[in-house]
Amino acid sequence: MSLVPLQETVMAKYPHLLAPLVPTASRPSQVVEMLSADIRAGIYQPKDRLPTEQELIARFAVSRTVIREALASLKAEGLIVTRQGSGAFVAENPFGPPFRITPDEMHSIPQMLYLMQLRLAVEVEAAGIAAENRTARTLERMGNCLVRIDDDLRTGTSVGQGDYEFHLSVAAATGNPYFERFIRFLRSTLRPGREINPALKDPVVWLDYFSQIQKQHRQIHAAIESQDPDGARDAARAHLEGALNEYRKMADYPPFSGQPQTSS
Question: Which of 24, 150, 250, 256 is 20 to 30 A from 81 in CA distance terms?
């Protein structure tokens, strides 16, 4: 029997899983979408200077942190370039790069599965390279992220930002700026755990789940600190496959083992 593509299988057996997830676009994502629309409409032409941070803060009524995160996402997508002391400018060919993943695409479990498989392909190797290239400074950055997540777990605060920053710190430890740009590029596609899995709205379930996630983060950090590339890859793979399998369980799909499946 030949294999049926994942999305077709889920659609046939569990059509309710293809219903759109509740849209809760973050403020940075909203700013990114509006500025992207301005660039696409020609309001800002290639090489044009964007408004200053202060002007963008006033326009969107958001914090400086939100504006800076939005600009970082636009830069990661190749829509703008930044020049120290001069500000942000529209890229010469802002819509030249053909590859883009938007938050609108992450509307169902199959799309989230595809994204996790992409992250596996990139972030596992990034962890191995980070173990080879890490410095005292990048280790400290990772450690600070772990402390932040610990604090969030103690107070019951969302760990989403801390989790993102940890993965970003691993990418930065590779010494290869493209890994870090890739994680920044994906930032707007990440969805809050409670939004995807309603069971996480239970505080006890939430704490247990993210405590396990944090344990996996520490295993990745320990392997990188020990300069153990294979151990770092194994820890990152276990961490990401665990998240991938959570999505597969929601779709009642067989666990992902990283091994090719054969037809019978």
Answer: 24
